[in-house]
Amino acid sequence: MSLLEGRALSKRFARRGVQVEALKDVSFTLGDGEILGVVGESGSGKSTLLRLVSSLEKPDKGEVLLEGKPLPPKRTKAQYRAIQMIFQDAAGSFQPRRRISASIRDGVKSLWGRDAEPDMAELCALVGLSPDLAERYPRELSGGQCQRFAIARAVAASPRVLLCDEITSALDVSTQAQVLHLVADICREKHMAALLVSHDLAVVSCLCSRVMVLYRGELVEEGPVRRVIDAPEQEYTKRLLDSVLEVR
Asked: Are 113 and 83 members of one domain?
């Protein structure tokens, strides 16, 4: 049985009075401890998929299952804790007038109860940052530091699944690699699974054993990463490969 499953997920949005299909009957499975890559250009439906899985948006059709059980439109706190999102704009995902440590505590208390208290020293050690940095405001940190704290905030909820939405796109190449390997290390250590969204096949090839390719809201190719990279079946996947910048 898969840890997480999406079945025929579809979503439409109204844009300038026109209905646009952001996602069309997309299905996937995610195994326990697996990191699954989701790639495609802007507008392919990658972020919409994560928003449906996280319950930030409701699907027009289809369902999300956790450990074989459908997740309801209104989830319990335990169900919210199980699936945590890490956003592309890490600094913007924190309250600008709250210290990082306070924001992380707020998140933990909202999901576990007001008596819950995260171990900030342990979380900082997990993401390779000094506890002193957690007492700063988001504007006082670098992009890489903010993203590491965003990872710490997600992990503090003790999730089963991490949803990573273009988490390296705003970072320089060396910091990208560090953040990606940090996510992989944490998933191994904490035995968590992850959906890793990116526009870059090189990014997912660093961490993932399988990859899904989305194009205009549709799943056009999926399979083992090495097979998809070495012998892509779809012309769109070949175009994505042509635009790859290698992440070292």
From this structure: yes
